[in-house]
Amino acid sequence: MPKLTELTAASSLANTDLLVVTTNTSGSAVSNSVNVATLAQAVQVANPLIKTIEGDSGTIISSNSSASVKIAGGSGVTTATSGNTLTITVDSSSFSTGFTVSQINTPSGNVVSDNRAAFVANIAQSNGVLVTASGNTITFTFDPSTINTLTDVTAPEYNSEGALPANNAAYNGHTVVAGGKLYHGANNVFNKHFDTRDYVAGDIPGSAVHTVTVNSGKYLIDGTRQQALRLVPGMVYWFDTSDNSNDSHPLAFSKTFDGTHNSGSEIANNTSSDGTIIYQRVGTAGQAGSYTKVQLQQDCDELYYYYCTNHSGMGGDVTTLKPSRADIKFTVSANGSGAYNFSGHGAQGTDNETLYVYKGFTYEFDNYASLSSHPFQLRVSSGGSAYSNGVTDTNSTNGKVYWTVPMNAANIVYQCTSHGGMVGNIVVIT
Questions:
Q1: What is the C-alpha to C-alpha distance for residues 108 and 194, in angstroms, rounded to an integer?
Q2: Gap between the Cα atoms of 315 and 67, Å rounded
Q3: What is the Cα–Cα distance from 149 to 242, expressed in whole angstroms?
Q4: CA–CA dist 129, 288 (Å, integer)
Q5: Angle subtended at Cα 319 by Cα 315 and Cα 322, rounded to the nearest 5 degrees
Q6: pLDDT reported for residue 235
Q7: How far apart are CA 131 and CA 141, in angstroms?
């Protein structure tokens, strides 16, 4: 039986072969070489090993032929082997069946979850604001009746209106209390909430308050159905529309009967285009603090109308009570493009008739009906320059010309500025 006496690497073979030295039966040494690669291959064939495990993001390489790799499960995950198969199983019962909200965004900030499994977002209510949820919809509802009674709880209460801050831009949109009354900040000024308890007709010089209600589709002014109003220029009139019967019936003013329902228009808010009326419609009709404010100017029209912006046939007339500016009034009309006609106070109504006037008297020439086509003008002579001594409103938008005859006045003429044949004499009588 040969004996293994030495196993060493042959240096000339660069460690690729092993030199095996054995002895024979006679004791003589016998040398043989064995290739390592061939030997390893023979071993693997007899007992194969996994050298590498490849994953989606890496590879495990065995450095020890006897090493083992364990694939362990985790929470909700189990692993099992059978033959040459590795099975990874996920327990769906251990996971949530739906999606979890991780963030809610708002215009003024975001709510972010730091734990999706436990994340709950709350949307809080405040005074006058109601929050309800149904399905995946959140609804915000505002209660006007509550909001109208709110004051700014963070703002100080002032003893009087005079104590309100002069620079109050910070209070825009806020309601504060001063002297027990409500004031609302807007456009860097404080506006007092209208309250009929504070404004009783006659309490404030030059002002009057009218209570507006609605019954059977008609306005009642101070309890009178479609009352014909008589307003004096210069006075301030408040029409209180806070009664709940005014709900959906905004009270507006127009120069046209029934306003927008008759091809007219509402008077512009704050000031009309011709400057003859100051006009404001504030708040929501039928709610506390709502009103319509009117102040006629001296050159206002003689007739206006109040109406509902939503419904026709609810309003009535507004007559302007103005002191007379003239002792004698003439109404001027046109006969085609050839002559003027006059009516009133002794006028004969003939074409281009001669008029006689007295020194010291004031005369009104009302040419409203013919103003657009035949502007009426007093002149020093036919085709001459305009006469101005004692004359006012020579180009009035309402067609009226006033002339207080001075003591040194001489005879003049009247003439159409567009048609020279429409001309007549005015004789001054001492």
A1: 33
A2: 101
A3: 14
A4: 18
A5: 160
A6: 79
A7: 6
> All domains of the chain, ordered by start, with CATH?
3-46 (no CATH), 125-192 (no CATH), 207-320 (2.60.40), 328-429 (2.60.40)
Question: Concatenated DSSP letters for 266-326?
Answer: BPPSEE-TTSSEEEEEES-TTSTT-EEEEEE-TT--SEEEEEESSSTT--EEEEE------
Segment among 41-50, 183-192, 202-211 with least mean pLDDT? 41-50
pTM: 0.36
**Mean pLDDT across the stretch 303-318?**
94
- Where is pLDDT greater, at 419 or 41? 419
**In this structure, which amino acid lies at residue 379?**
R
Burial (CB < 10 A; 0-12, 13-18, 19+), residue 333, is middle
For residue 276, list its beta bridge partners. Answer: none
Question: Can you say how many angstroms the Cα of residue 332 is from the centroid of all Cα atoms in its chain?
Answer: 49
CB contact at 8 A, 266 and 259:
yes
Q: Which residues contact 30 (CB under 8 A, 6 or more apart)?
A: 2, 21, 22, 23, 24
- pLDDT tens track for 317-353: 998 876 666 788 999 999 999 999 999 888 999 999 9
Angle in degrees, CA 390, 392, 395, rounded to 5: 140
Find out whether 402 and 385 touch, Cβ atoms under 8 Å: no
AA letter at 416: C
Under 8 Å between Cβ of 395 and 372: no
- Phi, psi (degrees; rounded to nearest 5) at 6: -160, 140
CA–CA–CA angle 210, 211, 215 (5° rounding): 135
400-415 per-position pLDDT tens digit: 888 988 888 999 999 9
| H-state helical runs in 133-237 | 144-147
